[in-house]
Design brief:
The protein is mainly alpha-helical. The protein has 2 domains: 211 residues, HUPs (Rossmann fold), CATH 3.40.50.620; 80 residues, Tyrosyl-Transfer RNA Synthetase (Orthogonal Bundle), CATH 1.10.240.10. It is 54% helix and 7% strand. The protein has 13 helices and 5 strands. It has a 3-stranded parallel sheet. The chain has a two-stranded parallel ribbon with strand order 4-5. It is globular. The two termini are 32 Å apart. The chain binds adenosine-5'-tetraphosphate. The site of adenosine-5'-tetraphosphate (AQP) has 21 residues, from β1 and α1.
């Protein structure tokens, strides 16, 4: 089986953008690939955060992933900092990564613009650590949202540079994108993002989902009810792609273009469909939240397995680079 790797930061509650762009695919891919999934806490400290809250947020993210359907019988789940090889390989990759490539990354530009007073080397280096995360397991596929495609292109560039200089050690990883690869915040402005706080949490109750959705910006063409809309330009319709069966999506798209359905009713359908998917996930989450030792056991087993793979791959990279043994 080919190997898949992906990660999510414990920088807040997982949201519908995370679910639609990445997590739904994580669950689906478990049956087709050997999947390794990671709560990437080293990444989460590249932005301002509360150290006292990090352990709780890390455990909570792992709990959410298991509730969403990550099955420890099929996939490996672990916490990044439990496998310190990630940072060592990142250092090796730093030495083949051009500084200019890092400076032109959109995420670095966006996040540093939001926090001008505290731009760290860690934030700049984020994509190099991400390349190391993937390559420690020689993963060939990475299910991500569209925001991570540029980072993945850089991972491939890092791999090419490493392999050209030191021999063919690593494969070039490819992204796997979902149909809803970029969900905007409900204000329709920026990407839905934990650090912006414009999110609809994945574990929100039916009421909270409706409270959020009803304020959500739709296609700008529909000023009045009788104006035809354009679903391809509507963030609400993008969310439908994850939660609404395809036939119903087509029906809604036609009705929107003919102005025979209003945005309010279209959102009502979406709210019901989100709740249908999320209600069992919420239930599993609450059940697992009461058994943190179960989640800890899964993470410990995952880390032990990953340390043994990571140790071998890191040794190969070190040998290729000529380090003294
Ligand atoms: N809005 C989004 N639409 C589609 N996919 C998304 N992803 C994130 N936001 C959206 C995908 O979710 C996965 C995990 O993301 P992450 O937590 O590692 O970091 P991120 O991409 O930076 O997500 P956030 O919510 O914006 O976190 P913060 O604000 O803490 O940086 C990734 O595959 C991502 O593509």
């Amino acid at each position: 089986m080919k190997r898949v790797f992906s990660g999510i930061q414990p920088s807040g509650e997982a949201h519908l953008g995370n679910y639609a762009g990445a997590l739904k695919n994580w669950v689906r891919l478990q049956d087709e690939y050997e999947c390794i999934y990671c709560v990437v806490d080293y990444h989460a400290v590249t932005q301002p955060y509360e150290s006292a809250e990090l352990p709780g947020k890390t455990l909570d993210m792992a709990t959410s992933l298991l509730a969403a359907g990550i099955d420890p019988e099929k996939a490996t789940l672990f916490v990044q900092s439990a496998v310190p090889e990630h940072t060592e390989l990142a250092w090796l990759f730093n030495c083949v990564t051009p500084l200019g490539e890092l400076e032109r990354m959109t995420q670095f530009k966006d996040k540093s613009a939001r926090n001008r007073k505290n731009i760290t080397a860690g934030l700049l280096d984020y994509p190099v650590l991400q390349a190391a995360d993937i390559m420690l397991y020689k993963a060939e596929y990475v299910p991500v949202g569209e925001d991570q495609v540029q980072h993945l292109e850089l991972s491939r560039e890092i791999v090419r540079r490493f392999n050209t200089r030191y021999g063919d050690v690593f494969p070039e990883p490819q992204p796997i994108l979902s149909t809803a690869k970029r969900i905007l915040g409900l204000d329709g402005q920026a990407k839905m993002s934990k650090s912006i706080g414009n999110t609809l949490p994945m574990l929100a109750t039916a009421e909270e989902i409706w409270d959020g959705l009803k304020t959500g910006v739709t296609c700008s063409k529909r000023v009045r009810l009788k104006d035809p809309g354009e679903p391809d330009e509507c963030n609400i319709f993008t969310i439908h792609k994850t939660f609404t069966p395809e036939e119903k999506q087509m029906e809604l798209a036609t009705a929107c273009r003919e102005a025979s359905i209003g945005c309010f009713d279209c959102k009502k359908v979406l709210a019901a469909n989100i709740d249908e998917t999320m209600a069992p996930i919420r239930e599993r989450y609450l059940e697992l939240k009461g058994k943190p030792e179960v989640v800890r056991e899964v993470l410990a087993a995952g880390a032990a397995r990953c340390r043994s793979i990571a140790g071998e791959v890191l040794a190969e990279a070190r040998a290729a680079m000529g380090f003294f043994k």
